[in-house]
Write a structure and sequence with these properties.
The chain is about 75% helix and about 0% strand. By secondary structure, it is mostly helical. The radius of gyration is 18 Å and the shape is globular.
């Protein structure tokens, strides 16, 4: 998954393939949680949902970019608008896509799942803040590919935790009981 994003020649191309890469990684790993009887159909629906959400978020991001005022931080005329747009759209894309995936995959507890997504997205932002320094999430900067890779890793983790949390809780309980 990460290698596919790295090998793509530009962030624009990565954005074209990101929904496909993400949908395939989540649906193929969690195919046993699909509600659809035909697994290939379920994977195809997951890919369609992924492209639908990402296209919708791109349109919303474009509209917000037109209406949102430019906000610069005094240090080096740092553009805060790019940070806000990418951060908000990345988080909303994760939440919205999971909402649609909850109709396709068996998910035991939606509240916990949204908590997993929120915590994992905080990791995306933290990783980008740590590794990007002053160029954090600005469009046109090479760091945007790093954001996409971080988003793929942590959102895949959040989705997998959400779909497999009963196994995680059983594992943790077993470990807790064996220590006590």
């Amino acid at each position: 998954m990460i290698l596919a994003v790295i090998l793509l020649p530009s962030a624009g191309m990565a954005l074209v393939f990101l929904p496909l890469i993400f949908a395939l990684s989540v649906s193929l790993i969690n195919h046993n949680h699909l509600k659809v009887k035909s697994k290939p159909l379920g994977v195809l629906i997951a890919v369609g949902q992924s492209y639908g959400v990402f296209l919708g978020m791109a349109v919303v991001l474009y509209i917000l970019d037109e209406f949102m005022p430019e906000v610069y931080l005094p240090v080096n005329h740092f553009n805060f608008k790019g940070i806000a747009l990418v951060t908000i759209s990345g988080y909303l894309a994760g939440l919205l896509l999971f909402y649609f995936y909850s109709f396709l995959f068996r998910v035991e507890n939606l509240r916990i799942s949204f908590l997993y997504i929120t915590i994992c997205y905080i990791f995306v932002v933290a990783v980008m803040h740590i590794f990007s320094k002053n160029e954090f999430l600005q469009f046109g900067v090479d760091k945007f590919t790093s954001f996409l890779i971080s988003w793929l890793i942590f959102m895949s983790l959040a989705y997998s935790l959400s779909m497999n949390d009963e196994g995680l809780f059983k594992f943790l309980k077993k470990k807790w009981d064996s220590k006590g």
